[in-house]
Request: fold
Amino acid sequence: MRHYQDYKNLFKTHSKFQKNILNKYIVRNLPVLYAIFLCFFLFTFAYFLNEANILQAQTAQEINTKIEQKNAEIEKLERDIRRYQAEIDTLGKEKNSLNNAIKQIDLSRQKLNTDISVTEKKIERTNFTLKELGTDILDKEGLIKNNMASLASQVRRTNEIDLENPIKILISGKNFTELWNDVDNMASVKEALIQYTSDIREAKFVLEDTREKTNKVKNELVGLKTELANQKKVVDQNASDKKRLLAQTKNNESNYQKLLKDQITKKELFEKELRDYESQLKFILDPKKLPNRGVLSWPLDYMYVTQEFGAKTGPHRTYASGHSGTDFRARTPVPTKAMADGVVKGVGDTDIACPGASFGRWVFIEYNNGLSSTHAHLSTILAYEGQQVKRGQTIAYTGGTGRVTGPHLHISLYVSSGVEVATVPSKACPGKILKQPIAAINAYLDPMYYLPAI
Reply:
């Protein structure tokens, strides 16, 4: 930058008055130099920004088109899912026959395969959304970088400016009011540019937050895809059960009905001998040690009670007679979840020792609140003995193992101090020993009392 004395020597012929004005202008009005070049920068920046926006708009349009295509595909698949579910529900209301059982297995497989396709489409859609957000973030980062570099460049160039043009403006007789108005206007432009840069930076933070949230959604979808893949395994297992069923009945309806009748007889005999055994167990229930009502969460995402617990005796339902738990509708294999934090104290399958007599595949959990539960009639077990589980964690998939008239979820609830996994010899299946949770009669509790209010 030229020193002030250099400019003073250039204008020795001027009057003292003119030189004083020049000195004051140079010293006080250097911001004009910033304003001149900032104005030039704004016009140049706007041109390149417009070109960049055109290219970005084309890319964004392509991504949005792909997202809309995925939405249309998902909508079509979800219509198919609703149709499959309606057919399954209709079959569930019809007479229990071999043909209906086979149809239900086949429809479940079709529905779950479609569920998997829907999840895959959602993952693809989320990837497109992530790509769009990533492009926006990179664009904003580029704008901020260019803005900051341009501002720094103007500061450097100001130190090299020749003041000939400002001086000519001064000599030309332009009054100070107009000059200061120009300075004020250029200063406003500069402040606006700085504010614009700040706005872009804030927009970048917003986009990064959005991308983080979208990544979370993507991870959830990937988890859902794994879940659905497990459900497909459940259906494959059901297909194996279908083959076994056909082998047992020789694809004959009368043989199927005879099989059902034999299972009912076996179940009733086993339930009687189990109740006789449990009624002899000594347990003193202290109601003061029980947790408050509503401390558990639902074991299924969609709840519909098909059979209540026990019988109404006084203000509460008790296991004086009737059903040992609560049954929930689950006609297709769906995830069943832990109802509170706790530890898996046992898993098993009563069908191994005595098919069709009891729980079938089961998971027993002891919770940290003094309660324990059995999830029964499962198709696939994911939990393992000794596992620490959290409220809402998937532990298995519902099914129709053990003695059932149709697929559903059975939940038995107990006071933890009055139940344990034990073995009992079975008269229903002579010579066989069944392993499952066994509790004193007065240790059974009504699950609905401790689940959320409907």
About this structure: Residues 299 and 337 are 5 Å apart (CA to CA). The first helix runs from residue 4 to 10.
